[in-house]
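Course assignment 3, question 2. Fill in each field.
Student: A.L.
Task: Predict the tertiary structure for the chain below.
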Amino acid sequence: MRKYFGTDGIRRIANTELSPELVYRVAKSGAYVLSKHTDKTPTILIGRDTRLSGTLIESAMVAGFLSYGANVKLLGVMPTPAVAYLTRKLQADASVVISASHNTFEFNGIKYFSNKGMKIPDELEEEIEETMDSGKLDQLTAVKDKIGVSEVRTDLLDEYVYFFRKNFDDNIEKYNNPNFKVAIDTANGATFKVVEMIFKLLKINHVIINNNPNGININENCGSTHLESLKEYVIKNKMSLGIAYDGDGDRCLAVDEKGEEIDGDKILAILANYLKQKGKLSKDTIVATVMSNLGLNKYAEANKLKLIQTKVGDRYVLEEMLKNGYNLGGEQSGHVILLDYNPTGDGILTSLMLIQAILESGKKASELGNIVQKYPQVLINAKVDSNKKYDYEKNPEIKTAIEKLEQEFSGNGRVLIRPSGTEPLVRVMIEGKDTKLIEEKAKKLADLIEEKCK
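Answer field:
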């Protein structure tokens, strides 16, 4: 069991649980682990979102890196995927994003990326933890002329803007329509500045909302986790499409012209269809997680596409894509990986691919969104003893109940049981055509799990 890193880096309340002292240790240990295989002075990039605590965490990270002897380039406020992209382009040894993604402002976090611009694997995070607690941090101290130096390189944001110009300028110009109007919600987060630059450059008719960060309003009733204000704006102002990013810009969800949500599953289906028509969908395959809606499975079957599902987490989606040569994958939450462009979820990239697909089709966003017929989903948490979260797998009564449910659905429903990684809960998710029925079934199964695992 890992002590510091969770499913998406380290994420805690800033300046208490995520103290400067802890951050310093994470930085120094990370620099050591990630640069063990380089024969030169390591260079590490640091980007952050708009949280109040961002510069505090950044300062502690810089101190840790410089103390080890690594050199640092400070990118300032920059989306996570921009940092990943620049890590590869500049051939840096590693990078760090200081962000708590979609969480509220009092949280902050640390995500490490390798020299390939990908989130580091579980094994490296475990090695960093071992180094942090090994007692040898004092031995990793640079002295005299070996101490690292830092430099501010906020100008590198222009390189990320050029990436979009290079890949989208010609095609968007060819199909663009001044009557196609896009509302963009930046969640008062890391995309607030760069998205304006990109959409202006591509001459897409757009309006940006929730783009006045003050350090504490990141994700506050806005962005991809709170679509209400965007839906309202799209309908009221007769927009063609609404786009919502999360706080660090690696997620994208959309809203059609009727104010209906286009979630990650629907975006994956739209992009799969678009890429397949162009002969660019590798092996006619979509990679998603076990949390994807059954409607995506049905869509894939009907369109002769292969759908592969991994455990929850975009890093596991990426692992599957790299392992078997797929180029499209993602999560229902809006993490979409387009591997031909960037090896991490990229909200702006996803939104531009979606806009391109809509413009080229000549259809409305709602028409494309309807290609996936979503099944109702019910999620109920069973409260269990934290030491018995996995006992449901061994209990014959629970196993029989799950098997019986799956037989009842016979392909038109799904049962997914998933222990929480951080809480004493077992999550019971059931999909099916009848909402009332699946609510009853989920409640009954959750009660049984609580009874047998208390």
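Instructor remarks: The radius of gyration is 23 Å. The chain has 14 helices and 18 strands.
Grade: pending
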